[in-house]
Structure formats: C-alpha cells, structure tokens
Amino acid sequence: MPLYKTITVDEGTKVLIWKIEETLDWLVDDIQLTPHCQERVNGMKSILHKRGFMSIRHLFAEIGYTDHDLYYDENGKPHLKDGKCISITHSFNFTAIIISEDEVGIDIEKQRDKILKIAEKFTPLKEYHTVANEDALIRKLTIVWGAKESIYKLYAQPGLGFLQHINIADFDFDDKRTTGKVYFKGEKSDYNLEFLEFEGFTCVYAKPVKVAVKK
Questions:
Q1: Contacts (Cβ under 8 Å, ≥6 apart) of 151
Q2: Over the stretch 145-200, which tens digit does the pLDDT of each residue have?
Q3: What are the start-end ranges of the E strands in 20-80?
Q4: Is the CB of residue 193 less than 8 Å from the CB of residue 205?
Q5: SS3 state of residue 103
Q6: Helices 35-42 & 47-62, crossing angle to 10 degrees?
Q7: How far apart are the C-alpha atoms of 64 and 172, rounded to whole Å?
C-alpha cells in the first residue's frame, strides 16, 4: 500500500505519508505536471528523486489536488491556489505532505549516525548530555533537526539560521510532541511540533501557536 499513513492533526490539518515502492513508469502514468515541474523532473539525475517527486503528486491526488493547483513563491515555498497552506518533504523512500488552513511545515529524515558529525552546526550538543546512549542521541538529534527544518520551511525567510534563531524545547520520546521558538530580526514566534518514528525514519511537523485575542 503506497499510502503509508494518514494523520488528522486537527479539524483543518492533515498529514499524508507515502512509501515509495513503485517504478517511475507507474508513478508518472496519468500524472500531468506543469511545465515548470516537468522541467524540474527532467533535470533530476537520480531516479529515486524522480520517484519521490512523482509520489508527492499522488499524495496531492489523494486529497483532490493536482500539480496545477500548486505554485512556488520567490523563496521557493510551495502554496496552493485555493489559499490552503502546504509543506512537502522527501527522504530516501518516504515522502509526505501536510495541508492546513494555517501555516505549516513538515520534514522527514532518515535516522543516521552522520547527524552526530553535524549536530553542533544546528544545536548545542551540551543540552543532550543526559541522553542514555548513542542510538538514543541519534534519534533525539534527528527529531531536533526535523523540528528546525519544519519551522524553517514554515517561516521561509532568507537568513533564518538553525543554530542562531530556532530553539527547540527538550522532550521525552514518549511525548511525541514539543515546542519551538524563533527569535529573528527582533521578533519572537512560537510553534507546536509533533513527531513520529517509523522504519528508521523520523517525521516532524510544525504549526504556529495561535495567540488568543482578548475581547
């Protein structure tokens, strides 16, 4: 079953995850791309990247959209023409989208020890001195990276830095959720984050914290 998982986050927000098991020929069949996206696919050298790109178009179809309903702004952020918000992610043999009435971001990452080598570039490693073992540290760092990446996609402002501007609150694995803050250009914004782990991968998605308006 290529549609791996569907998550209803809330009344207006849904996550769809695809496990890529199909051939490229199967994935391109009956999918009409915009000229811009067809050019992007034609320029991809990796068959896996092409399969990932096309599987995302099948995720669109699952909820009634086509490639022609999508456009990208000057910062490369995807948008839907009907005004709903979307974020897209691809890692190896998994792809996912999140669609919402609110601004959203999503990221899938493969859990790999490579993250230990780059951790200090995106988060202070001293914060994780109590993590039980290396496997747990890899899992936690992958969640933190995915959380920052999902916020970065949502925020979509040039110059936003993972280490300098995005902070993720500590969490327990069993929580399946945490919070994040962005401090950028004199402004602060808050985000709710949820995460799940499956088959050696981590998926994280972000939504802004809504501020209650006093009446």
A1: 105, 166, 180, 182, 191, 193, 206
A2: 999 999 999 999 999 999 999 999 999 999 999 999 999 999 999 999 999 999 99
A3: 70-72, 78-80
A4: yes
A5: coil
A6: 150
A7: 36
